[in-house]
Amino acid sequence: MSAVKIFGHQNPDTDTITSAIVAADIESRLGNDAKSFRLGEIGAETKYALEYFGAQAPELLEKLEDGEQVILVDHNEFQQSAENIGNAHILKVLDHHRIANFQTESPLYYRAEPVGCTATILNKVYKENSLEITKEMAGLMISAIISDTLLFKSPTTTEEDIDAAAELKEIAGVDLESYGIEMLKAGASTHDKSAEELITGDAKSFDMGVKTTRIAQINVVDVDEVFERRAEIEDAINKQIDTEGYDLFVLVVTDILKSESKVLSLGKESGAVEKAFDVSLDDNTAVLEGVVSRKKQVVPNITKALS
Amino acid sequence: MSAVKIFGHQNPDTDTITSAIVAADIESRLGNDAKSFRLGEIGAETKYALEYFGAQAPELLEKLEDGEQVILVDHNEFQQSAENIGNAHILKVLDHHRIANFQTESPLYYRAEPVGCTATILNKVYKENSLEITKEMAGLMISAIISDTLLFKSPTTTEEDIDAAAELKEIAGVDLESYGIEMLKAGASTHDKSAEELITGDAKSFDMGVKTTRIAQINVVDVDEVFERRAEIEDAINKQIDTEGYDLFVLVVTDILKSESKVLSLGKESGAVEKAFDVSLDDNTAVLEGVVSRKKQVVPNITKALS
User: Fold this and answer.
1) What pLDDT is attached to residue A226?
2) Is residue A174 predicted with pLDDT exceeding 70?
3) What is the DSSP secondary structure assignment for residue B84, as one 8-state letter?
4) Nearest to residue B254, comparing CAs of B282, B298, B302, B292?
5) Which of A252, B38, B39, B249 has its CA 20 to 30 Å from the CA of residue A49?
6) Phi, psi of B19 (to 5 degrees)
7) DSSP annotation of B296
């Protein structure tokens, strides 16, 4: 039997990559043969975290065979997962998202909690199994929590995330604020990215009733840096709408210092954003004050507006 | 805010009823306002267990309003749940089945483990939260474990179920074997039931690809007691196939002492049972040696045969 493959979602972010590494550490320590993988390229923020704590990036998952044993972290929706996931044997899921477009033939271990970050759950799993947490794993979990909660500013942040980060920083030996801002900044530059990269880097598809919605998010420290390139970005989005058949494509450009987002809404359902957030689109854009979380704010509101 | 409603699946069995009661006890002890409900009539086996341990049966759930807060135990598939479950706000799921036809708009607490019984997971939850277990709750959890594992004979039985029952019997003060056989026998008589009751008492629907399959199970100590009434039972099944549009209806009559089942397979896909279990149907019936578990043996095999 080959090692159980552990991976997060497509367009991997810091929580998805580090949670795959950390979950593989937990499985190994429990005596199970497991290996972490990634479904795509690693971003600058995640690279910063991996290098800072001396961790190796997981290998790219090339192909998933029918019946292969897998553990999913930080996602469950099949359209966000590996190709052929529907034919794999899913042993476990460790996640903090809504559940949708997910099914198995057999009973499994599924652990989801409505917390800000998968790493917060993994920290509990270490403790429940009385496993010591290394400095490297603590650092990776902290990085995931900072990334997913935008340094505790996102409304997805829970007391449990804050407590987990406070525990883990002692083991990792870092200052949350200064390490966190450096890590977030490392991922916030858009100059070195093509329009295509910007709209696919952290993008997820959602089936919302009969509509298919694509929501891409970019975290920045300067929103204008993105919107100065609007023509080029809009072309890239419209190309994806044509080829993938999205009914709605929302680009969410989040200012991580101001804790607000400017959105660009395209596609034949672009008006859904007005209903979803009670705003008027101006040339297909709107500023959404206080909106920083795709999961907790953008997806539920658009889902309701489309249903 | 009204109390969170906790309930198991339609056609409630002992695990579903007792897990709703036990989960409500846990929530209350954690300071949350919660109340157990049932989605149908309580069977003789469950009645025996409730009376033995002096527990009250949950109220029948009459109606679920849009947006009501609920906790599901012992199931997740919407077609096995309350009407209007798709519009409820599901806070938690505690279950031990495959996941399918389940989705939420928001993140939630979901805990599934591939163990034989929901009660085995609830026993862990008590311990993780350092809550003392009363004699009544221990007795209900033991009853659920015995019922779902057919006194540890079902292949769904795990070490964890056996360990949980061993712990709980000390608190409940019963002998597992003698209490278990009396409880199972209390639910195994078919004389007092109409054909309609026999095929609906413990029946679940499953979407299997494009086919809809209904699988009803009866636990007995004498298989012939059921098949002597075959004509009447077959009429009742065919009526349901007509009105509900099932592609396949499998009645699984399980001999709890011999640990085998005789099935009656009807509907336009009745042949699927031959492929599923590598048997030949004789007049639409077959004896399946060693098959006692719908979840672990019947559903996966028929799902594969139909896909």
Assistant:
1) 95
2) yes
3) T
4) B292
5) A252
6) -65, -35
7) I
The Cα A153–Cα B141 span in angstroms is 42
Of A104, A110, A128, the CB nearest to B110: A110
* Model confidence at A1: pLDDT above 70: no
pLDDT (tens digit per residue) in A8-45:
999 999 999 999 999 999 999 999 999 999 999 999 99
A95 is in an annotated binding site: no
pLDDT score of B263: 98
- Cβ-defined contact of A303 to B105 (cutoff 8 Å): yes
Please give the average per-residue pLDDT across B105-129, as a whole number.
96
Q: How far is CA A172 from CA A54, A57, A136, in A?
A: 12, 18, 7
Strand order in the sheet with A203-208: A203-208, A211-220, A248-255, A260-266, A285-289
Q: A150 pLDDT exceeds 70?
A: yes
What mean pLDDT is predicted for residues A255-278?
Answer: 94
* One fold for A4-186 and A195-306: no
Residue B298, Cβ neighbours under 10 Å: how many?
A: 25
Helix (H, G, I), strand (E, B) or coil at A14: helix
CATH architecture of residue range(s) A4-186: Alpha-Beta Complex (3.90)
Domain residue ranges in chain B:
4-186, 195-306
Question: Contact B107/A100, CB-based, under 8 Å?
Answer: no
3-state secondary structure string across B167-189: HHHHHHCCCHHHHHHHHHHHCCC
Are A105 and B296 inside 8 Å of each other by CB?
no
Strand partners, B263: B252, B286
A108 CB within 8 Å of a chain B CB: yes
pTM of whole model > 0.90? Answer: no
A72: which strand partners? Answer: A7, A93
In this prediction, residue B1 carries a pLDDT of: 61
- Assign B295 a pLDDT band (cuts: 50, 70, 90): confident
Q: Cα separation of B120 and B149, whole Å?
A: 11
Assigned fold of A195-306: Diaminopimelate Epimerase; Chain A, domain 1 (3.10.310)
Taking the Cβ of residue A207 and every Cβ of chain B, the question of whether any pair is shorter than 8 Å is answered with no
